[in-house]
Amino acid sequence: MTTARLAPRTALFLPASNPRAIAKARGLDADMVILDLEDSVRDDAKAEARAAAVAAVAEGFGPRLAAIRINGIGSAEHGADLDAVAGSVADFVVLPKVESAVEAAAVAEACGRPLLAMIETPLGVLAAAAIAAAPGVGGLLTGTNDLAATLRLPPSSGRGAMALALQTIVLAARAAEVWALDGVFNALDDAQGLAAECREGRALGFDGKTLIHPNQIAVAAAAFGPTPQEIADAEALIAAATGGAERYRDRMIETMHVDQARALLARL
Ligand SMILES: CC(C)(COP(=O)(O)OP(=O)(O)OC[C@H]1O[C@@H](n2cnc3c(N)ncnc32)[C@H](O)[C@@H]1OP(=O)(O)O)[C@@H](O)C(=O)NCCC(=O)NCCSC(=O)C[C@H](O)C(=O)O
Ligand SMILES: [Mg+2]
């Protein structure tokens, strides 16, 4: 499924069990909010969180896209979550720990809306291309915490140990023409570290980043947007191009470079 809307640069997770976070999100600059029913919600608060998520999307998040992350297939809450999302006005359902195209398509159909598939296990990574191309899938979200755990990475491992998985997710999303969002950055007070990880994510080809705290939004939005230099370069290249292969400053350009420059400007 090709998602018609531009991909979000910033997708903010919040526990659906936290009414203060829900209220706060309505005034934040995130492109998408993801009301979580899974890992951030205690078992004894699941039913209340589910009802709160449905009510929150009904009340609306203004121009922000609204998604609900349900509990995974096989969990005690999964069926009730599916029914709740199906009866809600959420824009997207987010399914954690997706490992096959069949389960992604089935959940998208049951919910009656596009699905954002979280790729966060080795099986999920290996099936990413099929999952991205499954009916009803609008994007892939990277679950770097679960990925680190399921790959059994030692705490000292950096993102380098996940490079193949991250690139596979981008490759799969691009092949199916769906969104690709990078994983969350767990440190809450490290703006520099966040900016560096966002730059790396953008360089890998991700459209944006999933986030966990309001103070991460501005950093991620800036990092996933074009720099003033990139904008100036794109405008100059388009103005100079006359078609076909030609010299532009000190390099060769062809039609695809003009298309790339136009695509960059279209995302401003
Ligand atoms: C991580 C937190 C628990 C930290 O909470 P806290 O210490 O309370 O934060 P602050 O005091 O700094 O909060 C300041 C105000 O901002 C609001 N707030 C905080 N976080 C959010 C948020 N995510 N969205 C909206 N608003 C938020 C607080 O309510 C404060 O407002 P106010 O009370 O009015 O002053 C907390 O940030 C948090 O819960 N974050 C999200 C956690 C989450 O959703 N986790 C699940 C997704 S991550 C994941 O699972 C990824 C993937 O699956 C993987 O495997 O990697
Ligand atoms: Mg996870």
TrEMBL record:
Mg(2+) binds at E120, D146. Pfam families: HpcH_HpaI. InterPro entries: Aldolase/citrate-lyase_domain, Citrate_lyase_beta/mcl1/mcl2, Pyrv/PenolPyrv_kinase-like_dom, Pyrv_kinase-like_dom_sf. Keywords: Lyase, Magnesium, Metal-binding. One of its GO terms (biological process) is oxaloacetate metabolic process. One of its GO terms (molecular function) is magnesium ion binding. The keyword Magnesium applies. Substrate binds at R69, E120. Transmembrane segments: none annotated. SUPFAM superfamilies: Phosphoenolpyruvate/pyruvate domain (SSF51621). It comes from the Bacteria. Belongs to the HpcH/HpaI aldolase family. This is Citryl-CoA lyase.
